[in-house]
Write a structure and sequence with these properties.
By secondary structure, the chain is mostly helical. The chain has a domain at about 30-95. About 80% of the residues lie in helices and about 0% in strands. It starts with a helix and ends in a 5-residue tail after the last helix. About 0% of the residues are buried.
Length: about 100
């Protein structure tokens, strides 16, 4: 996996402060996000009859509405999970000795 150098610096910092491997950190951060993204994609594919034909979705207002509601819910769920993970990470960082 290749990542931006800034992201790599951030991952190195977080993993060293939290005393976890980068792989573990990435897994914990990406698992919920990927699951939700997959859900959105599956919803999209389901709404289009798994044909991948976006024209079907665009021509049916009910399918569009359902897709947007599902996407909105996935975004809301993702924000809530992100906020929870960020709060947990900050809480754990607060309990670590800072070494200064």
């Amino acid at each position: 996996m290749t990542v931006d150098s800034k992201l790599l610096d951030d991952l190195n910092f977080l993993s060293s402060v939290l005393l976890v491997s980068r792989s573990s950190l990435i897994t914990e951060l990406l698992s919920p996000t990927c699951a939700q993204m997959r859900g959105v994609i599956e919803l999209t594919n389901s709404a289009t009859g798994n044909s991948g034909n976006s024209e079907t979705l665009a021509r049916d207002p009910e399918k569009v509405r359902s897709y947007i509601e599902g996407l909105s819910q996935a975004i809301s769920d993702q924000k809530q999970q992100y906020d929870s993970a960020a709060n947990l990470m900050l809480s754990e960082m607060d309990t670590q000795a800072n070494g200064h």
